[in-house]
Amino acid sequence: MGLNTALIFLVFSLLVLLRLSNELYRHASLSRSKEEWIVDFMGLIIQGVIIPLTPLMMIPLLKYFVPSLHQSVHIDPIGQFIISFFVVDYLYYWNHRFFHSKTFWHIHRLHHSSRHLDVFATSRNSLVTSFVFIYVWAQVIGLYLIQDPTFFLAGFGCTFALDLWRHGGVATPKILKNLMSPILILPEHHIYHHAVLGRTKNYGANLNWWDRIHGTFSNEMIQNENLEKLPSRSIWLEIFSPRRIGK
Ligand SMILES: [Zn+2]
Fold first, then answer.
1. What's the pTM value of the predicted model, to 2 decimals?
2. 199 alpha carbon to ligand 1 midpoint, in Å?
């Protein structure tokens, strides 16, 4: 837990510094409306404080109801990392794709309301959405079942750090773009996903392989501006009581 928290804090701080030290980026980030600050601050509290408490609450409950399964599974370090970084990433691809179906779009709509992406908007979600991410529950199950889940947690640490980077609103240097674009969902790929035109593309989180396999990958690059806008309903309703009001 400690190493993951340190990694996430480091990546978050670095992205804030990079964002605020560039005049154009800084102007875009600070041009948020009061509502946008509220929704992003709430998102960071929910995902940074409430969600990390989920394993702390769930594991004692599981220990009480199914004590025999606690730390009952031995998985070697490589296997642990493969499960949390690759397998859960594939499940997240479908998790995210279902969010874009008519049935679930209303709980994902708020995440797609940023005018531009930056690290502050990473966790912009309705409260309920934060609890239906596959990685929240995969983490609880793995932590409960696996003996010494150090490498299982390391996979999630990398996933969460990449999530911040993907939303960070900092352009990827060309050399890194060329190196990583066959493997990872880059910030530029994710910006396209956040635009109305690209909503049905680039659902992946860590790896772009799942989008490539299922025909939803796009290498289209667009400017990180005028992507979408806040829903017309009260921001508090969007956070605590999202409703279907059409796509
Ligand atoms: Zn989406």
1. 0.92
2. 6
Give the distance (Å) from ligand 1 centre to CA of residue 185: 13
What tens digit of pLDDT does each residue of 65-101 get? 999 999 999 999 999 999 999 999 999 999 999 999 9
Q: Which two tokens stand for residue 140?
A: 């609880």
Q: Give helix 88-99 / helix 134-145 axis angle, nearest 10°.
A: 150
Between the CA of residue 191 and those of 80, 92, 161, 236, what are the distances in Å? 30, 18, 17, 25
Distance of CA 43 from the midpoint of ligand 1 (Å)? 16
C-alpha of 169 from chain center: 14
- Give the gyration radius of the chain's Cα atoms: 18
Contact by Cβ (8 Å): 110, 238: yes
| Cα–Cα distance, 86 to 47 (Å, whole number) | 22
Ligand 1: centre distance to CA 130 (Å): 13
More confident residue, 244 or 82: 82
CA torsion angle 187 206 1 54 (round to 10): 100
The 8 Å CB, 24+ separation contacts for 199-202 are: 199/100, 199/112, 200/100
Show the tokens assigned to 77.
Answer: 């370090």
